[in-house]
Amino acid sequence: MVIQWVAAVDDLPTVSDTKLNFLKAYKRPIPSIYNTVLQELIMMRIEKAIFQAYINALKEDPKQYSLCAALNINKRSVDRDLDVYRNLLSKLVQAKELLKEYVDREKKKVVEKSRISEG
Q1: pTM value?
Q2: Do residues 94 and 33 touch, judged by C-beta distance below 8 A?
Q3: CB within 8 Å of 13: residues ≥ 6 apart
Q4: Phi-psi region of 66 (alpha: psi -120 to 50; beta: other; left: phi over 0)
Q5: Could you report the per-residue pLDDT of 69-113, keeping only the tens digit for each?
Q6: Roughly what angle, to the nearest 10 degrees, separates helices 32-57 and 2-10?
Q7: Is 60 within 8 Å of 54 (Cβ atoms)?
Q8: Which residue from 68, 19, 25, 26 is spatially nearest to 46, judged by alpha carbons?
Q9: What is the DSSP letter of 14?
Q10: Which residues contact 46 (CB under 8 A, 6 or more apart)?
Q11: How far apart are CA 119 and CA 99, in angstroms?
Q12: Where are the alpha helices (DSSP H) in the chain?
C-alpha cells in the first residue's frame, strides 16, 4: 500500500507543470493579487500529498494527526473558519497591492509637480 501511495505522489504534476497547465487553460493576464492565491492553492495540494506519503511511509493512521479529532471539534466548522481566514488574507493582500499602487501614483505626481515648478 505504501508503494502505491508513493507512486501516486510521484504522479503528481510539479508546481511549475501545474502552473503552466493553468496558464494554458486561462489565457488572460492574471493580476498579481490572484497570482499569490493561485500559488498558495498549488502549494497546498503538494503539501497535502507530501504529508500523506510521509504518514503512510510511517505506517501510521493519518487520523491520529487530525487536530480536530484530538480536540473533539467539528471539522466542518474549522474548515469554514479557515475559509473566512483565507478570504481575509486575500483581501489584505489585495489592499496591500492597492496601497502600493496609490503610493506609486502619488510619488509620480510629486515628481511631475517638481518638474513643472523647475521648468
Answers
A1: 0.43
A2: yes
A3: 21
A4: beta
A5: 778 888 888 889 988 988 898 889 889 989 999 999 999 999 998
A6: 160
A7: no
A8: 19
A9: P
A10: 12, 15
A11: 30
A12: 2-10, 15-25, 32-57, 67-71, 75-118
Hunting for cell 505506517 — which residue is that? 59
Which of 45, 47, 5, 6 has the alpha carbon at shortest distance from 22?
45
Q: For residue 46, what is its C-alpha cell?
A: 503538494
Compute the average pLDDT of residues 37-54. Answer: 83
Q: How many other C-beta atoms lie within 10 A of the C-beta of residue 87?
A: 10
Is 62 in contact with 55 (CB distance < 8 Å)? Answer: yes
Q: Which amino acid is at 47?
A: E
Annotated domain spans of the chain = 1-65, 68-119
Task: Please give the grid coordinates belonging to residue 82.
Answer: 479557515
Share of the chain above pLDDT 90, in %: 16
Q: Which residue type sits at 75?
A: K
Contacts of residue 51, defined as CB under 8 A and 6 or more positions apart, other chains included, come to 62
Q: How many CA atoms lie within 13 A of 11 on its CB side?
A: 6
